[in-house]
UniProtKB/TrEMBL annotation:
Protein's name in the database: Putative nitroreductase TM1586 domain-containing protein
Source organism (scientific name): Bifidobacterium breve DSM 20213 = JCM 1192
Listed SUPFAM superfamilies: FMN-dependent nitroreductase-like
Domain Putative nitroreductase TM1586, residue spans: 1-218
Alphabetical list of InterPro entries matching this protein: Nitroreductase-like, TM1586_NiRdase
Length: 226
């Protein structure tokens, strides 16, 4: 989590067979767990398939994790949160393999140049560019922990260590425009955590990313989600 920073300028060094195989395995596991259709596109001329980006200037993107799934009939936000959670785990996997990454939102994903497959009813809320960066990424600014975490029946300073670790890890979570539109609240029972998406750009994607960071740092045996 501490090593992953957004990188948008890549060189032409291809992924190794080991990197591709490890990512394929991680994607298969994420798809099985979350019911998604995430796809890896690698070593192509334009991994964006000609699609414009929502934000950020990217160069030489030859590899992409396309975060694809089907919306819940009752709530589109569920898919966004799922791809945030699953996608960030894949981004961290890529970093562990020595690769650089960046989240990206693409427009017109149904009218692309064939880099990925969208089945009927599927949507691609976001994607992850990856490869070998021409320069390292830089840490992003974060809100203070007390703005991202709260205790329902007390002061944040007296929260259990596992809760503080989770909130501090969420400070490292990337989000659209760096706004971090999420909040964690420890409820009165001292074990249940409510995670909320706040107003912002792609807030549910940001919440999914932040929840993964929280889980990794706090330990899923320490708490339950509300």
């Amino acid at each position: 989590m501490q090593k992953r920073h957004a990188v948008r300028d890549y060189n032409d060094e291809p992924l190794t067979a080991e990197q591709v195989n490890t990512l394929d395995e991680a994607i298969a596991a994420a798809n099985a767990k979350q019911g998604l259709d995430i796809q890896l596109i690698h070593d192509v001329d334009d991994a964006f398939g000609g699609c414009p980006t929502h934000y950020g200037r990217f160069k030489n993107v030859h590899n992409l994790i396309a975060l694809i799934g089907t919306d819940s009939p009752s709530n589109e936000a569920i898919l966004d949160e799922k791809v945030g959670h699953a996608g960030q785990l894949l981004a961290l996997t890529a970093v562990s393999l020595g690769l650089d990454t960046s989240w990206v939102v693409l427009h017109e994903t149904a009218d692309h140049d064939g880099a990925w497959t969208l089945a009927e009813g599927e949507r691609m809320p976001a994607a992850i560019a990856l490869g070998h960066g021409n320069r390292p990424g830089r840490p992003h600014r974060s809100k203070p922990a007390k703005e991202l975490g709260a205790v329902e029946t007390g002061d944040y300073a007296n929260a259990p260590d596992w809760f503080k670790r989770g909130v501090e890890a969420s400070m490292l979570a990337p989000s659209a425009l760096g706004k971090q539109p999420f909040r964690f609240t420890l409820l009165a029972d001292g074990r249940t955590v409510r995670a909320e998406a706040l107003e912002g750009v792609q807030p549910e994607i940001g919440l999914g990313i932040a929840k993964l960071h929280f889980e990794l740092a706090a330990g899923t045996d320490s708490f339950v989600w509300a």
